[in-house]
Specification:
The structure is a homodimer of 158-residue chains. In chain A, 64% of the residues lie in helices and 8% in strands. By secondary structure, chain A is mainly alpha-helical. Chain A has one domain (22-147): Orthogonal Bundle (Arc Repressor Mutant, subunit A), CATH 1.10.10. At the A-B interface, helix 1, helix 2, helix 5 and helix 6 of A face helix 1, helix 2, helix 5 and helix 6 of B. Chain A binds a DNA duplex (30 and 30 nucleotides) through residues 25, 29, 32-33, 36, 45, 47-48, 62-64, 72-76, 78-80, 83, 97-101.
DNA sequence: GTAGAATGGGAGTATATACACCCAATCCCG
DNA sequence: CGGGATTGGGTGTATATACTCCCATTCTAC
């Protein structure tokens, strides 16, 4: 079905095409800046905050499990973890299986979370107020759908 | 041991918190990989494809206008443009105002778009099929809302 | 007309992200 | 037990992204 929502003037003015990916990337950038600005006084980026919270939630965790949790490439997680380690927020030590490397929070890491958490909550609240709870719920739904769809498409189910 | 404020988790099991930003970043990554995979045979990433199409749509354009169009930081756009220039897909030349630098497509740039376009359209179609047209419409709405909200929040309306 | 403001653009630096490849430990079979 | 397959991780390289400075041109008062 080609019935679209009110395509404004197909002639005359050229329009940005609605690329799903570009829409998502644009939103991601805009919202990330809001969070990063809010967390800056706590010395964290939103990505770092999220990773610290995952480690807090999961306890001492091998790198691969963290990567799965964050839906990040394992090697990306390695780099992100290295920055937190450099700043003394996280420690790594070998696990029982000597291939694994377990990440855990340091005291400074817990402190950083404590500093950042209220700021993060403020942004969440602000966005809820600005966008509305339903929109945010839609967003969560969407993530689930998109995760599923992405997996299906990438693993070659067409 | 439940250590924190009471109720957000109804199951007692530790849950990933629904961070708006992390949701968006995760979706953005997943979907970008779908597009990048699809466009790889055409030698483009989705970001590059999008930028080329913007230049095609806008004609010879100063860097700042391109950045506004893509809702990207100007300096980010400079770097992205440099890669396309390196690959011979885009040329820059000074404008009437000698401060400006106008970007335009080369023949190779147009050819790259032509190679990539059907692949891009396939992904759009595939996502429309997988996620449904309404979901995609929601996504476009959301981008508008988020853009507005982000601008309001960043420019200090709190 | 000229000095300072404003504007357009780039460079240095830093983080986030992923792919291809490599290494070490463990596992699984014969 | 021994050797290939598997698994867990890291490195090299590349792109995307943005912030802080910095430079050149243009504009605006005066």
């Amino acid at each position: 079905m080609k019935k679209e929502s009110a395509k404004p003037s197909p002639h005359g003015e050229k329009r940005r095409s609605a690329c799903v990916c570009i829409n998502l990337r644009s939103m991601s950038r805009a919202v990330s800046q809001i969070y990063d600005d809010a967390l800056a006084p706590a010395g964290l980026k939103v990505t770092q905050f999220s990773l610290l919270r995952a480690i807090e939630r999961l306890g001492p965790t091998p790198v691969g499990a963290l990567a799965d949790d964050q839906e990040l490439d394992r090697t990306t997680l390695t780099r992100n973890l290295a920055l937190l380690e450099r700043d003394g927020l996280v420690e790594q030590s070998p696990g029982a299986d000597k291939r694994t490397s377990l990440a855990r929070l340091t005291r400074a890491g817990s402190a950083a979370i404590a500093r950042a958490l209220p700021r993060w909550e403020n942004v969440q609240k602000e966005l809820r107020r600005t966008l509305g709870a339903e929109t945010l719920a839609q967003l969560s739904d969407l993530r689930a759908k998109v995760s599923g769809a992405a997996k299906a498409i990438v693993t070659g189910v067409h």
